[in-house]
Design a protein that fits this description.
By secondary structure, the chain is of the alpha/beta class. It has 11 helices and 8 strands. Helix 4 packs parallel to helix 5, helix 7 crosses helix 8 and helix 9 packs parallel to helix 11.
Length: 232
């Protein structure tokens, strides 16, 4: 599996999204569609971006009872996205149900990954607000092991945990890492962040980059810089 840079298209409308994507005349970047854009525009935005030739990570972070998640994944499966996700906190049974729902009759399905802990969550918040007494690293590794047990392909984790996840779950277990910023950039509201070059060194398979590209003065140049630093 080759490494890739995924651009988080966190826009509130189709117009803003296509205005951004139209800047890319040579590349067809892998894009992430999150809750804001999906809830604003619905499944049609997925179909249109797919039609333009982009790979899509549909980032809706499902978390519900197993049967509900299975049915929702079955619907999402028809959109032919390349990657989608759920919350590992939903338990092994929920994750197994998600795999069942996402898998098509021919046995194929998108890459399915689990969110371990959000990159905005610190260990202090996890322990004080969620009452999880284990360390954040132990929690993330356990969630990753549960995801592997359930048949998922990998996890979303910060680049700081990618190495630990690989050690626990194997080199083939996919790590998708948000919280990536350039060394000379702002970190925004995320706590656990790193650079594209460091993410490559640690062993991330995919990095998700949002504002450092979407809000750059020259988004195409910023994207190319990410690719150069991460993929080489």
């Amino acid at each position: 599996m080759g490494k890739d840079v995924i651009i988080a298209c966190d826009f509130s409308s189709a117009k803003d999204t296509f205005d951004f994507l139209d800047k890319f005349t040579e590349e067809k970047p892998f894009v992430k569609i999150g809750m804001e854009l999906y809830y604003a525009e619905g499944p049609s935005i997925v179909r249109e971006i797919k039609k333009r030739g982009h790979k899509i990570f549909l980032d809706l972070k499902l978390h519900d009872i197993p049967n509900t998640v299975k049915k929702a994944m079955s619907v999402l499966s028809s959109l032919d996205v390349d990657m989608t996700n759920l919350h590992a906190a939903g338990t092994v049974d929920m994750m197994k149900a998600a795999v069942d729902g996402l898998t098509k009759e021919d046995g194929t399905r998108p890459i399915l990954i689990a969110v371990t802990q959000l990159t905005s969550t610190s260990e202090e918040r996890m322990q004080n607000e969620l009452l999880i007494n284990a360390s954040i690293n132990d929690t993330i590794v356990k969630y990753a092991e549960n995801a592997k047990l359930a048949g998922l392909d990998g996890v979303v984790c910060s680049p700081l945990e990618a190495g630990m996840v690989k050690d626990a779950c194997g080199k083939q277990f996919v790590t998708v890492t948000p919280g990536v910023r350039f060394a000379d950039g702002e970190v925004g509201d995320q706590v656990r962040v790193t650079t594209p070059a460091k993410a490559k060194e640690i062993g991330s398979d995919y990095i998700v980059v949002g504002r450092p590209v979407t809000q750059a003065a020259d988004p195409v140049a910023a994207y190319r810089r990410c690719v150069e630093e991460f993929v080489g």
